[in-house]
Amino acid sequence: MLKYDLVVVGGGPAGMAAALKAKECGVEKILICERDETLGGILEQCIHTGFGLHYFGEELSGPEYAARFIEQVEKTDIDVKVNTMVLDITTNNVVIAINKQDGLMEISATAIVLAMGCRERPRGAISIPGTRPAGVMTAGTAQRFANIDGYLPGKEVVILGSGDIGLIMARRMTLEGAKVKAVCELMPYSGGLTRNIVQCLDDFDIPLKLSHTVTEIRGKDRVEGVTISKVDGNLKPIPGTEEYIPCDTLMLSVGLLPENELSRSVGIRLDKVTGGAVVDQYRETNHEGIFACGNVLHVHDLVDFVTQEAQTAGEGAANYILGKKEYADYRIHTKGINGVRYVVPQRISMDGSEEPVKLYFRVGQVFTNATVKVTRNGNVIYAKKKRKLAPGEMENIVIKPEDLQDFSEGDYLFIEVEG
Question: What's the pLDDT tens digit per position in 77-87?
Answer without folding.
Answer: 999 999 999 99
